[in-house]
Amino acid sequence: MASQSTQPSSSMKKxxxxxxxxxxxxxxxxxxxxGNFLQAIDTxxxxxxxPTFISLLQPSPTILDLGCGTGRNTSLLMQIPKAxxxxxxxxxxxxxxxxxxxxxxxxxVPTPLRASAxxxxxxxxxxxxxxxxxxxxxxxxxxxxxxxxLEKFFAICYKVLAPGGMLLITNMHSDMGAISQxxxxxxxxxxxxxTKSYFHTILEVxxxxxxxxxxxxxxxxxxxxxxxxxKIGERGRKWIGVKVWFGMIVRKKV
Length: 254
Known about the structure:
The chain has helices at residues 20-27, 37-55, 92-107, 150-160, 174-177, 202-211, 229-232; strands at 16-18, 62-66, 84-89, 117-122, 136-142, 161-172, 183-185, 192-195, 214-223, 243-252. The protein is of the alpha/beta class and 254 residues long. Strand 5, helix 4 (150-160) and strand 6 form a beta-alpha-beta unit. The longest helix is centred in the first third of the chain and has 19 residues, at 37-55. The protein is globular and about 50 Å long.
């Protein structure tokens, strides 16, 4: 879901802080085309994570994309045979984009090799009480934790996952989070828009994993490298050498 400001916040004018649903409804029209380098890093790294993640799933899995946004990663789940994919998000405008994107992705996969179905629901993904799903095979949640207190985020994941269920998560690295957060510039007004964000370190994430009796299968931290710029754009140059991303594949213990 989240995509991040590509400049340290100290260089910006004072932003307009909006509630998450309102901010992302405004952002939806430009979210996929604003040249955000962290989103590009996330796309690269999720592509690396997916083969391992998919290999750990049971046949015909039910997968929740928690904070699906415009379906950037939800669409990749269309390649999982007989999967039931459910996208949840707080933004109706983001979901509208995701539906179109996922239909295109589904149509591009031969019938025997593609997901069985996908659905989307408008949902407060920061509230464990609002996410009423149980027994899911897997949860995917990319660049979302920044908007949710960790205790609530992992309470939701624990609630919806079946024993042995898999969790793929990514987030802004705390090294980047110390000087930047999710936001965009409103093209009509030039105004910087941000939302409330939570600063989560990897150690804090790992502590929640331990408390909820999950186990880490795969983990990686990612800095920006000079060689990345051809893929992520020049806006990433000022972040060379800085850890900006981390990702994990986690299993709920049986």
